[in-house]
Amino acid sequence: MQKKVVVFSQIDQEIIQRLEQQFQVFQISPKLGDVNQQILEHTKDADAMIGAGRLLNASNLAHASQLKIISSVSVGYDNYDLAFLNQKNIWLSHTPHVLTETTADLAFTLLMSAARKVPVLDQWTKQGQWKRTVGPEQFGMDVFAKTIGIIGLGHIGAAIGRRARYGFNMNVLYHNRREKIELAESLSAQYCDLDDLLQRADFVVVAVDLNAESKALIGERELALMQSHAVLVNISRGSVIDEAALIDALSRGQIFAAGLDVYEQEPLQESPFFTLANVVTLPHVGSATAATRKRMAELAYQNLVDVLVHERAPRYVVNPKFE
Ligand code: 8YV
Predict the structure, then answer these.
(1) pLDDT (0 to 100) of residue 195
(2) Which residue CA neighbors atom 3 of ligand 1 most closely?
(3) If pLDDT is split at 50, 70 and 90, which confidence band does 321 have?
(4) For 4-96+290-308, which CATH class?
(5) Which residues form the D-isomer specific 2-hydroxyacid dehydrogenase catalytic domain (predicted)?
(6) Is the CB of 98 under 6 A from ligand 1?
(7) Above 60 in pLDDT, residue 35?
């Protein structure tokens, strides 16, 4: 009998076609009604799932008795209940590396946009408000040779560091669970504790994974440590920052600006951020270029085939041995 694959988000069409040539495929779609109900129903006889951007846990996978792998089309895996998957002997795979440079590009896009007020000035120009030469209201802040503080010097954090050091001659500070001596040397980066980094950086970029330690890492106290001219950028996960505290800090002008790609609740709807001129809001597009999303889907497909066809561990496994 053909194995069954449940696709739980939009993914590259070519990959769907390849899956359809080998497996029975069901695509979850909000158009077909309640998504969690569809997941419950269609994972009863599923061997694999592929997709991203949905919470998958003990409650919506309750009937997934023959599931062998969840192949996530993402590098982050905070949407999945690892303890549950381990207990059920279900592999979890992800797609690291292929999105590193694209996501680092987006971090810099946000940094530059927030520093130079790009979205506001774009609107201002299009609305015909450019009647004379610009004044202090339109002025932004310099990026070149300033100090950047990177929280989380993983692959993406390091790629941001390279742009900062070699593209913008920035002084690089970083905070990480453990020091990365060699990598730091190549970026002339200095290791700091979190408070020190927040106090010294002109630009603070959050690039950590979301886990128990990093949840609400940046709250009211941490925002208060930042300089009043500083810019905060988040390309990791929304819950790393206490959103209410950030909204408050931005409203009071406690920091200069923020550039955000990720939020506590996604998709972001009717947020106080929408009324603030000093925040740039993007819809979680860190990895969203056509080429990178294609590479991610391809890698996720290979992870899935490793398990369903070759009966071996996925090449990019998150839970290498079940506990
Ligand atoms: C995902 C991401 O593609 O890879 C990640 O962890 O955040 C993005 O690149 C996104 O989560 C898909 O919804």
Answers:
(1) 98
(2) 74
(3) confident
(4) alpha beta
(5) 5-316
(6) no
(7) yes
Atom index in ligand 1 nearest the CA of residue 99 equals 9
CA distance 206 to 261: 11
**Which amino acid would we find at residue 204?**
V
Q: Confirm whether 4-96+290-308 and 100-281 share one CATH topology.
A: yes
Q: How far apart are CA 236 and CA 311, in angstroms?
A: 33
Q: Which parts of 163-258 fold into alpha helices (H)? A: 168, 181-186, 194-200, 220-225, 243-251
Task: Give yes or no for residue 53 CB within 6 A of ligand 1.
Answer: yes
- Would you say the CB of residue 287 lies under 6 angstroms from ligand 1? yes
Mean pLDDT in the chain?
Answer: 97
| Distance of CA 257 from the midpoint of ligand 1 (Å) | 24
Task: Write down the CATH number for the domain with range 100-281.
Answer: 3.40.50.720
Q: Whose CA is nearest to atom 2 of ligand 1?
A: 74
Extract the tokens encoding 73: 């089309």
pTM over 0.85: yes
Q: Is the CB of 238 under 6 A from ligand 1?
A: no
**45-49 LR contacts (CB < 8 Å, sep 24+):** 45/4, 46/4, 46/5, 46/6, 47/3, 47/4, 47/5, 47/23, 47/308, 48/3, 48/4, 48/5, 48/6, 48/23, 48/304, 48/307, 48/308, 49/5, 49/6, 49/7, 49/8
CA distance 90 to 85: 5
Is the CB of residue 75 below 6 angstroms from any atom belonging to ligand 1? yes
286 lines ligand 1 (CB under 6 A): yes
Integer Cα distance of 206 and 218 in angstroms: 9
* Structure confidence at residue 323 as a pLDDT band (50, 70, 90): low
Residue 103 CA: nearest ligand 1 atom is 9
Alpha helices in 236-317 (DSSP H): 243-251, 290-308
Half-sphere exposure for 302 (CA within 13 Å, toward CB): 11
Euclidean distance between CA atoms 172 and 111, whole angstroms: 14
Residues known to be catalytic: 237, 266, 284
- The residue ranges of every structural domain in the chain are 4-96+290-308, 100-281
